[in-house]
Design brief:
With about 80 residues, the protein is mainly alpha-helical. The protein contains two helices and no strands.
């Protein structure tokens, strides 16, 4: 049995993706802040190195999410019909 997927208008899809990437960026920032707060208590411990590595990964994820947001913000204007 074949299931038909509902088609989503391009502008609606772009808006959903913009919202999704914005939410992801916000979650990554919260995760970074959480790890930063842990690091204050872990200075000089073995766990500090591990948590620092995880925090640095979150920073990388933030950059990716920010870049995806930028792409989605510029997407409609790059593909808008010319006047």
């Amino acid at each position: 049995m074949k299931v038909e997927k509902e088609k989503i208008a391009p502008e609606e899809m772009r808006e959903k993706l913009r919202t999704f990437f914005s939410d992801v960026a916000e979650l990554e920032k919260k995760a970074r802040d959480l790890y930063d707060s842990f690091l204050l208590d872990l200075a000089g411990t073995e766990a500090e190195e591990i948590i620092t590595h995880i925090r640095d990964q979150e920073i990388g994820h933030m950059r990716i999410a920010d870049e995806l947001q930028s792409i989605m913000k510029s997407y409609p204007s790059r593909h808008a019909p010319s006047e």
